[in-house]
Amino acid sequence: MNFLFSRRNYSYTPLPSTHTTVLGYWPSRRWIVLSVVFLCALTGAIWGGLESLKSPIYSPQKNYQAMTQPPLVYAGGRISPREKRAIVSTLYSDSYAVGVAVLGHSVRRANTTARLILPYLEGHISGEALCMVRAVGWQPIPVPRIDPPHNGKGIYHRFVDQYTKLNIWALDKMNIEQAIYLDADTLVRRNFDELFDLPFNFAAVPDIYGDKRGFTVNFNAGVLVLRPSSEVLDVMKEKIETADFPLDQAEQSFLNLFFSANALRLPYEYNANLAIKKSSPTMWEGMKEEIRVVHYTLVKPFLDESLASSKILTEEELRKVMDSAAKKKSSMFAEEVQWWRDAYHKMMDDEEATKHCHGVMS
Fold this sequence. Notes:
- The chain crosses the membrane at residues 31-50.
- One of its GO terms (molecular function) is glycosyltransferase activity.
- It comes from Collybia nuda.
- This protein is α/β, with parallel strands linked by helices.
- It has a single domain (82-356), classed as Spore Coat Polysaccharide Biosynthesis Protein SpsA, Chain A (Alpha-Beta Complex).
- It has 9 helices and 10 strands.
- It has helices at residues 29-53, 97-109, 127-135, 230-239, 250-258, 274-279, 281-287, 315-331, 334-350; strands at 85-88, 115-121, 139-143, 178-182, 186-188, 202-208, 215-226, 264-265, 272-273, 293-295.
- A 7-stranded mixed sheet has the order 3-2-1-4-7-6-8. A 3-stranded mixed sheet has the order 5-10-9.
- Strand 1, helix 2 (97-109) and strand 2 form a beta-alpha-beta unit.
């Protein structure tokens, strides 16, 4: 020991017997520090190795696959006339009928110049639900189901019908040149007709996730601006089965891959996903007055998710669902739930016809 530390003139003094360890003495401070450093380095190396074994976050840009996408800019070079514009949503289950009705009413209150077209899953929607959506101005059109790839393997159960959304690209057969798609769990707060003037063939709002991905360049498929084209739909249906993309988010993942190189990104105000408020409350407050469309991703004021059935809720059941939604996430979204509640009551006051839809068979 004296040889090892001769340059520093260290001396060894045994510790008192009351501090003796199983080794007979406490290690010197130097060895404690070196041991801690070594253990930290070892832990870091092990953690880094485990992280490297994890699959990297999927990126549709890094995994780009050529699929004969439409041109970036509309080849027609002109703004579509009002009669060839449409606001579009979809309906796959009666449980979303009230949500779609409130959405349609909110679109009309925003004084949009477009038609309201509602593709619905043929054979899955009741006469009562169709009566309700017609009462607020939707034009329901039956569409066939587009099956998920790989027989639905790897797809969340609630997303299995979502590929049917792709039928909106066939609206050119109804003489629609420009469409704005809105998910059934959205609500219009302000007019957004300016989106019809975009020269691009496809536009959407960037997505936000609750995990380490956070704010991303991938877009959310709850609000889409598109130029319908049956030819594009044919390409999509052809590529769904062979394209390589994560299946868990269904058609949203596929559309991110399909339009990965030529999707225009819109401001968050056109798809105000509640996940934005959860991730950045300050940003939400800053953009709140400009919100055109709010997207109820984290709470749904019209849906009782504890029910296995797809029935339309009664007014009393709906009231309880709204009350429950306002209290979720420590009441974080109470204000936004109140927006939806106000829109629902306004619809019920304005649209007497919806009150007479109960029991309608066709």
